[in-house]
Structures are given as structure tokens and as C-alpha cells.
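job 3f2a | input accepted
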Amino acid sequence: MPRQICPTCQRPLKVCYCSALVHIANRIKVLIIQHPLEEKHPFNTGRMARLCLENSELIVAENLSDEKLAQLLKPGSALLYPSLGWLPEVEQVAPGTPQAEALEQLVVIDATWRKSKKMLHLHPALQQLPRVSFEGALSSNYQIRHSSLENSLSTIESVAMAMAQLEPERDFKTMLAPFEYMVALQKANLRQ
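job 3f2a | predicted structure (192 res):
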């Protein structure tokens, strides 16, 4: 008999994190473009971010047509991505600036670093968006999945941090409750 899966979080019922979900009414829309390999990953935090943010959308695709991407990218969009040397230099959206105040949509790529780079190469329009990036040392609590790059955060940690800077009047740290609950459940199951 197959194990029962929660229809909301897509996790087995014994490790469902839905009881910890929060719902935040965000002004800036968060568009998550998720690589197809992430969709079924058991520790997928892009879906979790989507479930927490009322003004959000999740699209599963590695490669979008120029027409579809143009439909998705609203005026006033910015890309949440580190400022890496191979990317074109674009305007940085800093918290508290007029650009941040005018921001209508934050585009987030939910994929491994390798896959996210590929997705950016496939979509030059994403590379040209103004960028939201973080400075300084970052510390992730993603103890059950590891990144190939230092200073990396999970998708939900990145979105919570960016939104807290862009909409400081709301408490986006609460988005981390289901993430921390998922990590704790997984660690407890590994010990059994």
C-alpha cells in the first residue's frame, strides 16, 4: 500500500509541515520559477514559500518561451539572485530606495545552483532584470540539504530575507516556521 501524501505540501503525512504554515499578505508579488526536478524533491522550499505568501505564484518550467516569460514579467520586476561575475551588471534594488518602493514583483528561481545558472542562460530577459542580492555572510538552517556554494540559503530563507528588507512593515520571519518544522521532523526521523 503506498504511503499517504498530504495534498498541500506533497510530503508523507507523518512529516507534513502544514500545521506550521503561515499566511502573509505581501504587497510585492513573488513569482517562483521552479526547475522541474525541484517539484518532486521532498525538501522543496519553493512550494513552502508559495504556500506562505498570499501574493505569489509558482511556475514549474526549466525553459519558458519568450512570450510566456513576457507575460509573467510585470513592469517593476526584479530578480532575487546573487551578483555573480558572469551575470551582466544591472541596477541593484536596495531596501528603502525608490526602486524598492516601486517594486511590484520579485522573481525567484527555485533550483540547485547548477540548474539555476542554466535557467538564467536560457532566459536572457531574467539576467537583465534589476537584482535583489544580499551582502555579507549568510547562515542557513538547511541542515538536511546542502548547497555546492558557500554562503547559500534555501529558497524560503532567501525569500523571507528579501521580503523582510523590501516590506519591513510585515513579519516575514514567520515564513521560516514550516521550514524549521520540516527540518526538525526530518532530523527526528533520521534518528529513528
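job 3f2a | The longest helix spans residues 176-191.
job 3f2a | closed
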